[in-house]
Amino acid sequence: MGAGGPRRGAGPPDGGWGWAVLGACFVVTGFAYGFPKAVSVFFRALMRDFGAGYSDTAWVSSIMLAMLYGTGPVSSILVTRFGCRPVMLVGGLLASAGMVLASFATRLLELYLTAGVLTGLGLALNFQPSLIMLGLYFERRRPLANGLAAAGSPVFLSALSPLGQQLLEHFGWRGGFLLLGGLLLHCCACGAVMRPPPGPGPRPRGDSADGAPGEAEAERAGLRLREAPSGGRSRRRLLDVAVCADRAFGVYAITKFLMALGLFVPAILLVNYAKDAGVPDADAAFLLSIVGFVDIVARPACGALAGLARLRPHVAYLFSLALMANGITDLSSARARSYGALVAFCVAFGLSYGMVGALQFEVLMAAVGSHRFPSALGLVLLVEAVAVLIGPPSAGRLVDALRNYEVIFYLAGSEVALAGVFMAVATKCCLHGRRSQDTRPSQGAGGTASDSEDAEAPGDSEALPAGAEEPGSLEAREVPSPGAAAPEAQAEPGREPKPV
Would residue 235 be called left, alpha or beta, if left means φ above 0 and alpha means ψ between -120 and 50 degrees? Predict the structure, then answer.
């Protein structure tokens, strides 16, 4: 990653150390999505020790999930300022410390603050940077990489729940929390793996030329740098909220909000629904295992399918198809009462759920580009946090009020199917024309450039001194070159551009 790095024109490695990054992302994704659900095995012991109800105890997982989704913009800002690896190392320590401190809790409020807030924040600071770094290492194989990384969620959920049960039986909930806190230190090891990929030109290791810590990694993450008015040190845009004005981002954010309202509801209510239908407890619990097993296979398979040359340009439509399939599965299974019908529902639900999980971040990367992905991901997770706090709790209240699961399945299925229809229609009607215009070559006069992600530096056509590399952005990549200057940092008329 020093002077021997690849020169201008080289894209993401699509392999090499990227496979180690992919393995770390697999582990982090498994902890982020599986840990809040696995903690639920300790709820009965917590209810007994603290004399609390189930709803009060369940707030531990709810707060953990809210922190995972709701702190997305905070994670984006920290990644921009310090880089992926330092943020992940601190996040692993916070996640571990939260569970260790929770083992000494004497009140539920202390559990909310430790296991909920602290551990949830630590998981958030690991999850988002790992996805950003994965996108830097993979371009051609990115759909497959996203699918393999997403498979960590069902794998870890299937492993952490039995592990938590064993820890509870042998060490109690306090000992179990303490040991799970030690297990979360693996997030630090995953963070240490996240070294920045080779830059597009010669660059010193570690810090950038002006000495700002972590700036080289931030540049490689595609984060735009702007020169200060004084012409001295450069400053960063910590959170690119301008991405909200992008129509592709708006379509995706609305789709994710509608999706999150109903996507998780059937899985949460499935076991109780089966028990009310007369299914034995052991068989009802096995239904979730069926969903998990199918999900494990579906995610990498769908990622490989989306990476095919003919399908990758249409990944947004594939994502909308997965959403519609999931919604139709919920609608068609609302009256399923026999065990065979419930098994068929679990297979279909696991397949469509895995497709959604494998494609969701690939669609966002394709929509906004790699250089805007850190900010876009943080804002989307914030939108999703609002929907998660509305959807499942509202479904639980409706079940308590109506004593009827059929209405819940109809409602959840309609929301997810609507998200798929909206994604397909909006992509066709609102985005197709704009993308056609973006592919046309620029015909305007030189010397002006917009501040959008598609603008080219006006100095690209100017002559450079002998032996100097061209400082413009890479035209063959979505991620801008670290050497590219922002529009207002270009050479002024009459001044010779400096060699790189």
Answer: beta
